[in-house]
Every structure is written in structure tokens, then in C-alpha cells.
Predict the 3D structure of the following.
Amino acid sequence: MRLGLICRPFSFHGGVETATAGLLTALRRAGHDVELISTRRQASVPGLVVRRVPTLRHPSALRLISFAVAARAAAGRHGYDLVQSHERALRQDLYRAGEGCHGAYLEAMGRKLAGINPYHRLVLALERRIFRLRAARHVVAISRQGKEEIERRYGTDPQRVTLIYNGVDLERFHPDNRGRHRRQTRATLRIPDEAWTVLFVGSGFERKGLGPLLEAFAAVADAGSRLVVTGKGDVARYQSTAARLGIADRTIWTGPQQEVERFYAAADAVALPARYEPFGNVHLEALASGVPVLSSARAGGSEIVRRGENGWVAAEPTAGPIAEGLAALRDGPPGGWASGARASVERFTYAAQAQAFTALYDLLRR
């Protein structure tokens, strides 16, 4: 299969970028001839043709639409068997809805749809073209609730929406990392060996629930516990919150980290109580590392979390339910969390993800 894949610039580390890179590698191993359509900021990928298209950088609405127009033109020039987009493009055979529904995101963040800025209006218009007006022949959702959300909000035929979960690198993220990296990483972060440690990984602190997590941590953690915050966001704002709550000396801010597996190895629990999260690769990475996850029910990744087995699901991303979950993770089952956490994600491989996409390609080619 000669496949044109439209996506924003990515690298082989970090969040959504890691997921894209992992899927791309697995598709190539499955025998597909994949070419990447991206912007001029996309780095070269060994053995892969990269079709870089010109885009306007500012403002954000022009950047979005200029990429959509240029990507459509590039896809049309090169005669692909199928065009798959991970972005909201003007035309594609297959759209992977990795960011969920933008309207649902805006509502979750408390932003009224009326009066929103031109960028958000454009994103919503592109979504309508894809989900309602068939600017994509088929849609891939990355969680059950994402699939249901698309169908409910846009009236999309359920037969046009297929669920394909993300994959995870089961070698990079492994419980054995605890023996390799835990002590050194804790020493670097100045975390005592015995300190119960919660890890938050994510960029976009507000959407991913850092505020209520700080409140919950302050309510349940003892003086020896630590909260490690890894990722990008308004650090100063949340440092002020930590100081107000009296946990500034127990909260560690690391910024984004390429070797995030070391931080999972140092943690006793991972918390991602997101207000809106289509899936969340953090769920898979943490569980693959043998670390229990506290998720909110609003995150698609909560679909693989089982209370008392591999983590906890907070019904709402607010301090009370999060604190209840943190207490449960701290107390833990008698045998610990590692084996149950790891076992729960061993089927979520990039190879399985690529196999599911391949089956869908075959269906669309008939």
C-alpha cells in the first residue's frame, strides 16, 4: 500500500509525537510504502520520503488553513493509494481523530462556542467537513468515548467510525526500569528513597488537571511525599498554587523530559486527572512501566484503568475524587501494582495498531 500520511512535524520522543513515530515505524514494517506530508519544520526521517509543504506561520488560523490547502495539493500530486491524515485537513481518505472533538474540548475548558476566536471557528468548520460532510471517507477514533462523541455531536454514521487504540513501546517502558533508573533519578530530583512519589506528565497543565491534582495532593499526602510535574505549562501560576496550598517544598518541576521512562521508574503512581483527553499516551506508558495510574473518567485512557487492579478512575477531575484515588493508590494492593499494571497493556503494541489500520486500508480499497 502506497500511503500518504499528513501530520504536523514530529520527532521520536514525547507524547503525541512518540505515538505518531511508533505507528509510522510499524506501518513500514508491515510492508506499507509510507510518505510523510508535513511542514518545512519536519526533520528528515531515515529511509522515509518527506514531502514538506509551505505554510504561513502567523496567525494561527492562517497557519492551519495554509497547511490544509498545501497538504491537499501535495496529496493530489503524488498518486497515493490512500491518504491518511492525523490533522484536520480538507480532504483525506482516512482521518485519525487523535485530538477528539474540538467543540467538546472547548466546552470541557469552560469556553462558550459563541464568540470564540477565528482559529477555533476554523477548527470547528474543518471538523464539520470531516465528520458531517464526508471530507474523509472514514474516521478512526482512539477511544470508545471518542467514537461515541463523534457520532453523537455530528450524527456521523457509526459504520464510518472505527476504534483503534494507540500503541506503546513495551521495551522502552518496562517495570525493569525501576531497577535501572529509580535510585539515580530520585537522587537527581532529591527525592528520598522512602518518599511516596506521584508523577504528573503532560503539556497543557490546565486541560490535564494539574490544578485539582495539587489540591488533592495537599489534602492526602504526608510531609514526606513528593509530586513531580513533568511537561510544559504555566509553571509560575501553578507554583503559586502549590505555595498557597503549603506543598511548594514537596512539588518538583522538571520541565519537558526526553527520557521520561526514567521518571516513571522513580514514581509510585502517575496521575492524569484531565478535563479533556481523547486518550493519553501517559496511561499506556505508565502502566507498561508497572506504575498504577489515576485517571479522570473524562480521559479516553480511563477505559483501560481498573480500580484496584492497575489504578483508579476519578469520576470528576476535581479535588475530592482525585484525593480519594490518590489515597487508594498510596495504600495499594498487598502484592503491589507492577504485575497488574503491566499485564493490562501488553496487547497495546504498535504492531497491533498497524495491523488494525491495515485491515481498514483493505476495506477502503475494495
Q: What stands out?
A: The chain has 13 helices and 13 strands. The domain at 177-343 is CATH 3.40.50.2000 (Rossmann fold). The chain has a mean pLDDT of 94.
